Amino acid sequence: MDRRYTPLSPTEQLQQRIALLERIRQQPDMPLAQVVRQLRTGLYLTVEEYARLTGVATRTIQGIEAGAANPSMNTVNKLLQPFGLRLGVVSVAVDGG
Fold it and tell me: pLDDT (tens digit, 9 = 90+) per residue, 8-35?
């Protein structure tokens, strides 16, 4: 956990994770870079901790968060899997005019 933050109790951690996942689920059109960053920072993880958790290189995570990387679907799913998420297709409303 990022040392800049005071550790939370297990109950507080669980509540925080549930709230974070709900915010992400409510915005299915959120860009991948924003999702990855919110997952990491919302749980107070450093890039290094997130890399260890997911098995994705630190440099790759930094590139994704900066919007400068084009990760494979496998890499994206590695980043999402620890949180019970996976990459998917979302229906988009088509503007008739």
Answer: 788 988 998 899 999 998 998 899 999 9
Give the start-to-end residue ranges of the domains of the chain: 32-83
Tokens 């990491």 found at: 40
Question: How crowded is the C-beta side of 5, counted as CA atoms within 13 Å?
Answer: 12
pLDDT computed for residue 2 by the predictor: 58
Q: Note the pTM of the prediction, 2 decimals.
A: 0.81
The length of the chain in residues reads 97
**CATH number for region 32-83:** 1.10.260.40
DSSP 8-state secondary structure symbol assigned to residue 90? -
What DSSP line would sit under 39-88, residue for residue? HHHHTT--HHHHHHHHT--HHHHHHHHTT-----HHHHHHHHGGGT----
